[in-house]
Amino acid sequence: MPRRHRTESKSSPRRIEAAYKHSEALKLRMAGKSFDEIAEILGYADKSGAYLAVKAALAALPEPERTEYRRLNLERLN
């Protein structure tokens, strides 16, 4: 008989903590912090964890907020 995979509820402590960290990562990024700085502040192993957290937070946002994030990044590049 095949094993069933348990799915974690959306309100599990681990998911709540992850959502919080994603949100904080996005706030820090919008405040101008680098992915290395975000990783250090939030306890990710390296900048790739911070990048993935920001990416996840952006995916959960409506388009106008994502557009604002892109605009801020473009301004910083100029």
What this model shows, in words?
The model has no long low-confidence stretch (mean pLDDT 91). The chain contains four helices and no strands. The protein has 78 residues and is an all-alpha fold. Helices cover 69% and strands 0% of the residues. Helix 2 crosses helix 3.
Mean pLDDT: 91
Rounded to the nearest angstrom, the distance between the terminal CA atoms is 59 Å
Assign an overall shape: globular
Structural class: mainly alpha
Kindly provide the radius of gyration, computed on alpha-carbon positions and rounded to a whole number of angstroms. 15 Å
**Count of DSSP H/I helices:** 4
> For the report, how would you describe the main beta sheet?
none
Tell me the strand percentage band.
under 5%
Helical content class: 55-70%
Number of strands: 0
The low-confidence parts are: none
Output the helix-strand order.
HHHH
What's the structural blueprint in terms of helices and strands?
Elements: H1 13-30, H2 35-42, H3 47-59, H4 63-77
Q: Which keywords apply here?
A:
single chain, 78 residues, mainly alpha, 4 helices, 69% helix, globular
What's a quick, concise take on this entry?
The protein is mainly α and 78 residues long. Helix content is 69%, strand content 0%. The relative contact order is 0.12.
